[in-house]
Design a protein that fits this description.
Elements: E1 3-6, H1 12-22, E2 26-29, E3 33-37, E4 49-52, H2 55-59, H3 63-69, E5 73-76, H4 79-87, E6 91-94, H5 100-110, E7 116-122, H6 128-135, E8 139-150, H7 155-162, E9 169-172, H8 175-185, H9 188-194, E10 198-201, H10 204-209, H11 212-215, E11 219-220, H12 226-234
Parallel strand pairs: 1-2, 1-9, 4-5, 4-7, 5-6, 7-8, 9-10, 10-11
Antiparallel strand pairs: 3-8
């Protein structure tokens, strides 16, 4: 049975582990980042459309945010984000973008500039979405819902999880997680256990964060969604 290391934060890590177990893999859950709420507040301002960049932006948002945005058209970056937004009572009209670049294009295609875009996002992020929206003449307003913090598992914790058998595959969902994994691999005891693993990444940028040696052999999903990543793992 192939052993697959899951590095994403909880609760997504356990959700992925359950999917892997159903597929016949042995999941090893080792979150390398965690998300924490920022207790964001939202004020009365014009809102034409809402953009949501991660399920964490829904998971950590207070009810006051949902109340303020009720009935507004929501563009979610992907299906999992869209499902989370629907469960929170938001009106999701599009959840097929896959990444921030495509998300900005879909909003621009649907709304004439200038339009007021409320963006529910994390504090640690790239500025692609807001930059592209502004370049298209729109007016994004960022509501930072959560922060992403690094986790540094001890050698003892890694040993307890992995044991003496090598890891076959590693799943990586973010550049932040990849940076943390690269640091982990620099520790000799951990690096040896991951030396023969195949690395599966949601994007090339994530693979690049692992460092040039690992990035050369990393496998990249053809679309930044977990379903495509797990499909790649099966092939």
């Amino acid at each position: 049975m192939r052993r697959v290391l899951v590095t994403r934060p909880e609760p997504g890590a356990s959700e992925t582990a359950a999917r892997l177990a159903e597929m016949g893999f042995e999941p090893l859950v080792l979150p390398l980042t965690e998300t924490v709420p920022l207790h964001a507040a939202i004020h009365a301002e014009a809102v034409d459309v809402v953009a949501v960049t991660s399920p964490n932006a829904i998971r950590h948002a207070p009810q006051s945010v949902f109340d303020a945005l009720k009935g507004k058209p929501v563009y979610a970056v992907g299906r999992r984000t869209g499902d989370a937004a629907r469960a929170a009572g938001l009106h999701v009209v599009d959840d097929e973008a896959g990444d921030a670049e495509r998300l900005s294009r879909r909003i621009d295609a649907a709304f004439a500039a200038p339009c007021h875009v409320t963006v529910l996002c994390g504090q640690v992020r790239r500025d692609v979405l807001e930059t592209r929206l502004m370049e298209a003449g729109h007016r994004p307003r960022l509501i930072e819902i959560y922060d992403t913090l690094p986790l540094e598992p001890s050698d003892a914790a890694v040993q307890s999880l992995i044991g003496d058998r090598p890891v076959d595959d590693v799943l990586l969902y973010s550049a932040n997680g990849a940076v943390q994994l690269a640091r982990l691999m620099a520790r000799s005891g951990v690096g040896k256990k991951l030396a023969a693993a195949t690395y599966y990444c949601l994007s090339e940028r994530i693979a690049e964060a692992l460092g040039p040696d690992v990035a050369k052999t990393a496998r990249i999903a053809d679309f930044p969604a977990e379903d495509r990543l797990l499909l790649l793992l099966k092939t």
